[in-house]
Amino acid sequence: MASASLQFFAFILALLGVFGDITATLLPNWKVNADVGSNIITAITQMQGLWMDCTWYSTGMFSCTLKYSVLSLPVYIQAARTTMVLSCILSAFGICITTVGMKCTKLGGDADSKSYACFAGGACFILAGVFGLVPTSWYTREIISSFLDQTIPESSKHEPGGAVYTGFISAGFLLIAGVIFCTSCFRKQQGAWIYPPKQHHFPSTDQESNAGYNLKDYV
C-alpha cells in the first residue's frame, strides 16, 4: 500500500513536470532585457525564446516575431529546441506507460508486467529530465557569459527569464518521479531474492502411522 501511494505521488510530480516542460518550451521569455531609457513611458521589455522574440511596451502594446530560419540561430538555441521537444515527447510516453504499470490501476496484466511497465515509464521520466536539464543549463550559461562580457553593450545584455526557471523545476520533478518509479517497482522482488521464504519440513503423517503400526506388532 505504501508503494502504491509513493507511485501516486511520483505520478503527480511527473504530471507537473510534463506541464512545466511544455510550458517552458513554448514560453518566449527564456531571456529578458528591460530597457527603461530616459523616460519611463518609453520603457520596453524584450524577451527572447526558442520559437519567437517578443517586445512588451510600457504603453500596453505587445508584439512578437517568429524565428522562421533555423540555420541562422545559434547552436545552443537549436540544441535547446531539439532536446526540449524530446523531453516533452518522452515525458508524455512516461505518463502513458506508468498509467498502465502503477499498482493502483487495474491495467497492465499481472504484477510482473506492471513492474516492467512501471520501470520503463520511470526510465522515460529520467531521460526526459536529463533532456530538459541540459538545454536550460546551457542556455543559462550563455546568458551569464554574455552578461559578464565587457565588450557587449548594456542594452544587448539579458537575464534569465521565467521559462528557464520553469524548465529547471520541471526537469527536477521528472527526475525525482523517474527515480521513485524505478526504485519502487522491484523493491518487493529484490527483497524476495535477498530473503527467500523459509521452507518448513514437517514429518510425513504416513511415516508416523507406519511407525505406530510397527510398535503395535511387538506388543
Automatic annotation (TrEMBL):
The keyword Signal applies. The chain crosses the membrane at residues 84-104, 116-139, 163-186. It is a multi-pass membrane protein. It is found in: Cell junction, Tight junction; Cell membrane. Keywords: Cell junction, Cell membrane, Membrane, Signal, Tight junction, Transmembrane, Transmembrane helix. GO terms for cellular component: bicellular tight junction; plasma membrane. The keyword Phosphoprotein does not apply. GO terms for molecular function: structural molecule activity. Residues 1-24 form the signal peptide. It comes from the Eukaryota. Claudins function as major constituents of the tight junction complexes that regulate the permeability of epithelia. PANTHER family: CLAUDIN (PTHR12002). Belongs to the claudin family. This is Claudin.
